[in-house]
Amino acid sequence: MKQLYGHPESLYGIPTKYCGGCGHGVIHRIITELIDEMGLRERAIITNPVGCAIWADLYFDFDSVQPPHGRTPAAATGIKRVLPDHLVICYQGDGDMAAIGTAEMIHAANRGEKFTTIFVNNAIYGMTGGQMAPTTLVGQKAATAPYGRDPVTAGMGYPIKVAELLAQLEGARYIARGSVNSAANVRKTKQYIRRAFEAQTAGAGFTMVEVLSPCPTNWSMDPVQSVEWLEQQMIPIFPLGEIKNTLSGADVKTAAGRQGAAC
Known about the structure:
The protein has one domain (about 25-260): Thiamin diphosphate (ThDP)-binding fold, Pyr/PP domains (Rossmann fold). It has helices at about 25-35, 70-80, 95-100, 100-110, 160-165, 185-200, 215-220, 225-235, 250-260; strands at about 45, 65, 85-95, 115-120, 170-180, 205-210, 240-245. Strands 2-1-3-4-6-5-7 form a 7-stranded mixed beta sheet, with helices on both faces. The chain starts with about 25 loop residues before the first helix and ends with a helix. The protein is globular, with a radius of gyration of 18 Å. The chain is an alpha/beta fold. The protein is built from 9 helices and 7 strands.
């Protein structure tokens, strides 16, 4: 009998610290499934900073580094330059990447640093109490925007579309946006992350996959409501799909060859 599903070897089988309905656990599984399938476990390093991402290394059974808040791209740059044959992953939330670490990420992408960022966008500061994030939607309520984000009267600005922003930079080779609100979107998101990992192992430039993820606790919703809200409210603002893909067929072939040599 052929086994279709199982627990990834790269994912520890321990109880989760994430809130019920949170999307981080699904994203963790996608990452570890790919690392196992691509034979990269011994050469994988994840950098996870302050925020809900700080717990990620509890679940990944491979090397990790915890940089200061917002400085993950700087740490990943150093690691990748010293260990170019390793798969280096930045795992960042919207507050970390789109606020505190904006400059770090923009310049890393512009330089074409050869690591992959997994950007978890739940439109809120999750760990620190539900404050408004750079990706919070117009009208969405938050601890620091109790009447909803008001871009004009209250001067709160508009949601930052990180994927579209980074796609304008020449050093960025592959930028995509997925979601974990449905089984179909989970499968597509896994495809996007696979392409990003393949591009990195082939030696291409900067790659990033943004993942829309529910945060029921700080959205003040139950898990079912949060999934529905993500589909109805977030996806129209942050459309899914490949935003930029300048990879060639040679990138994928080279990646496949390197993986085969490593196995």
